[in-house]
Specification:
By secondary structure, the protein is mainly β. The protein contains ten helices and 42 strands.
């Protein structure tokens, strides 16, 4: 708790608490502190002239179940000018909000409210209303039009909002309006937006399918709004999309032409076949970013050609997604077809990043010799399966190239001395040739590519390469350890089942190693000896691997994850070789035995263990012999076909545990309190997706518990929510109880 004179009071820490001064005018509560909200609410009647209340640092993971807090605040603090209930677990706002007629600032962002009370319209002094990420909000109050002093309305992320209320045109002082959602009724059509002449910054205009014609679109007067620097235009997808009139759609977009001060343009779900002439006009000298289409917000499926964007003098970032009807990208992309061109200025003079994605009919990119893209740093082409050839070859500034899922593309990667990142995946015929000498990241998938890449790394001096990913290769690959570039720090291998390493030396720079469904010839995994400075190792789906053998020190290894290696039986040599191992994951490895071998001291460094609920892994012997006496975090996952009905056994778990998670143990029906009684340091217990768990046997859960989390476990959740007399006394001492994302205690 901190005090700023007698007028400021910030509730943070309970110790050394002093009373709130009756003269306090500005209150705040820090949810990450330990000052109870109830204490602060208890003194509200003494500080009725408070001007500010702010809840800060409140997050969904932080316990908070004061459902009556808003009612108390609104009933006691009638003179507030600023109120923030951001992240409160609010599902509704009391009607009494309308009594706070002095309020200037109201923040309800990240709450669960679905509607706002009509009394909100009484707040005639309100200047700022924030409803950011109120996902459940379906409608705004009709009385919103009465907030004549409103200057800032933020409704970003209100995905359920159907339309704007009528009378928005009366908010003449509005300077920031994050979103405008058009309806079908006259009172919330586009004319209302046209009357808001003072808008600045950004605006997103949604449900443009409700605009009937271009005359109506013109009434939005977007070209007059010179304060808007970022605009989003979006159409919602519907079943009638194939029946739209393409010319009408084009005319509507034409009349929505923004002011030339625009800096960023986003268009989603556009239903026309071509774009109007203003798109790409050189008069938009401030535009630096254009995004056309999005997987979730809507693609431009009907467009048969790209807009002419090459003459935009300041365009730096261009994203094109979901143009499903485009077959050819040619001169129209570089120059305006109505004669606006300037051969003295090469197309796309400032473009730095270019992304094409999900264009299933695109066959040809006619990369005409216009000296275009001279500043392009990043080029990405994803999921264009018909694209064949003729990509630009002269890209002198290219630093990053990504080509994925372009199966028919036959093209040689251009030589770019500045290239530092290369990703080629998806069965295409792209030829890599000589790898760039400054390459830092290389990601390759497919037989031909992997063979070429491995060969290239053996014969090219790649002194800067730090990350290598190879995948999807069924060919025999022989990879000597000494051929791995000495600068490499991360190596990931996936679906290369015939790849073999030649253990002809050591590599001292590698810190991260990931092997998935690869190296089938390995039964005894000896590879770790070749990389003595590993920090993190992931091994998964290596079905033939029976043991991990380490004969040299892995003094830096902190994190080891082994999953779905059904034949693995032993990792015992790791205990002595990796004295700093802190995090260990063993899932889907039913044959592994963690019982101590008798060699050396118990593994004192291990702090976090994630294991499957198999007989050998969770054996009484493994834990009873103090091998994990320093363990603080344990997570036990269910296994298919398990039959355990109750857990844990008494005295089975390490006494040092601070956190315990039970995950998808579908057969368990009873939680044994006796098996947890000795865990005097346990602070958090999480029970996740244990469908049959319903009972708790024994006196009660450990007194040290601070949090109990129950998720996806319907039988136990029901018992907790109704405070069942058989169960509740065993958990009611826990300060914070969350059931299915709701704090109930």
């Amino acid at each position: 708790m901190t005090c700023g004179g007698e007028f400021y009071f910030r509730a943070e820490e309970l110790r050394n608490a002093v009373e709130v001064d009756i003269k306090a005018r500005h209150l705040s509560h820090n949810a990450k502190g330990n000052y109870p909200m109830s204490n602060l609410l208890g003194v509200c009647d003494r500080v009725r002239h408070t001007r500010t209340f702010l809840e800060i640092n409140l997050e969904s993971r932080i316990p908070f179940n004061m459902e009556n807090a808003p009612c108390i605040l609104l009933s006691q603090l009638k003179y507030m000018r600023a109120l923030s209930l951001k992240n409160f677990p609010l599902v509704s706002l009391p009607d009494s909000i309308g009594e706070l007629i002095h309020l200037r600032y109201l923040n309800l962002s990240h709450t669960y409210i679905a509607t706002l009370p009509e009394s909100l319209g009484n707040l005639y002094n309100l200047q700022t209303l924030k409803l950011y990420s109120c996902y459940n909000l379906k409608m705004l109050p009709v009385g919103l039009k009465d907030l004549v002093n409103l200057r800032h309305l933020d409704i970003r992320g209100t995905r359920s909002l159907h339309e704007m209320p009528k009378g928005m045109s009366k908010l003449k002082n509005l300077q920031f309006l994050s979103d405008y959602v058009f309806g079908k009724r006259e009172e919330n059509k586009i004319t209302e937006l046209g009357a808001l002449a003072n808008l600045h910054e950004s605006i997103s205009i949604g449900k443009l399918e409700n605009v009937v014609n271009s005359s109506e679109a013109l009434e939005a007067r977007m070209s007059d709004k010179d304060g808007i620097d970022s605009i989003t235009l979006s159409w919602s997808e519907n079943e009638e999309e194939n029946t739209v009139d393409s010319q009408t759609e084009r005319d509507i977009l034409d009349k929505l032409r923004p002011h030339t001060n625009l800096k960023e343009l986003y268009i989603y779900g556009y239903r026309g076949t071509t774009f109007p002439d203003w798109m790409g006009h050189s008069s938009y000298y401030n535009i630096t970013k254009i995004t056309l289409g999005d997987f979730f917000l809507g693609c431009c499926r009907n467009c048969c050609m790209l807009p002419s964007l090459g003459q935009m003098p300041s365009l730096k970032h261009l994203t094109i997604i979901g143009f499903e009807s485009v077959e050819i990208v040619g001169a129209e992309f570089y120059f305006n077809q109505n004669g606006e061109s300037c051969l003295e200025t090469p197309p796309f003079p400032m473009l730095e990043t270019l992304l094409f994605s999900s264009m299933p009919c695109w066959k040809e990119w006619r990369s005409l010799e216009f000296n275009a893209f001279r500043r392009l740093r990043e080029l990405s082409i994803h999921s264009c399966p018909m694209l064949r050839r003729d990509l630009p070859n002269h890209l002198p500034s290219l630093q990053s190239l990504e080509i994925t899922n372009c199966k028919q593309l036959s093209w040689c990667v251009p030589r770019s001395p500045a290239m530092t990142s290369l990703r080629i995946e998806g069965g295409n015929e792209v030829r890599i040739g000589e790898l760039p000498p400054l390459l830092r990241e290389l990601s390759i998938a497919g037989n031909h590519h992997v063979e070429s890449a491995v060969e290239a790394t053996m014969h090219t001096q790649l002194s800067c390469l730090t990350s290598l990913y190879i995948a999807d290769c069924s060919s025999q690959i022989w990879f000597p350890v000494t051929a791995i570039p000495p600068s490499l720090q991360e190596l990931r291998i996936r679906d290369c089942r015939k790849l073999e390493f030649e253990m002809d030396g050591q590599h001292h720079s590698l810190h991260e190693l990931s092997i998935q469904n690869s190296c089938d010839s390995l039964t005894s995994f000896l590879l770790l000896d070749a990389f003595p400075n590993l920090v993190r190792v992931e091994i998964s789906y290596c079905g033939n691997m029976e043991c991990i053998v380490v004969s040299r020190s892995l003094s830096s290894l902190c994190d080891l994850s082994i999953t779905h290696c059904g034949s693995l039986k032993s990792v015992s040599t790791l205990w002595m070789a990796a004295p700093q191992l802190e995090d260990l994951t063993l899932l889907g490895c039913p044959e592994v035995d963690l019982s101590p071998t008798g060699d050396g001291d118990p593994h004192r460094s291990l702090r976090s263990l994630e294991i499957s609920n198999s007989e050998k892994l969770v054996s009484y012997t493994a834990f009873k012999n103090s091998q994990f006496h320093g363990l603080t975090h344990l997570s036990i996952h269910g296994e298919y076909g398990e039959s355990v009905k109750s857990l844990p056994k008494e005295g089975w778990l390490p006494a040092s545990l601070e956190s315990l998670t039970l995950f998808r143990i579908e057969s368990v029906e009873t939680l044994e309190c006796k098996g947890l009684a000795h865990l005097t340091s346990l602070q958090k217990l999480s029970i996740l997706y244990c469908d049959k768990l319903e009972n708790m046997e024994g006196e009660k859960l450990p007194a040290s518990l601070i949090q109990l989390i129950i998720l996806g476990s319907p039988l136990l959740a029901k018992q907790c929510q109704k405070k069942d007399p058989q169960l509740w006394p065993k958990i009611s001492h826990i300060p914070a109880i969350q059931v299915d994302y709701t704090w109930i205690w």
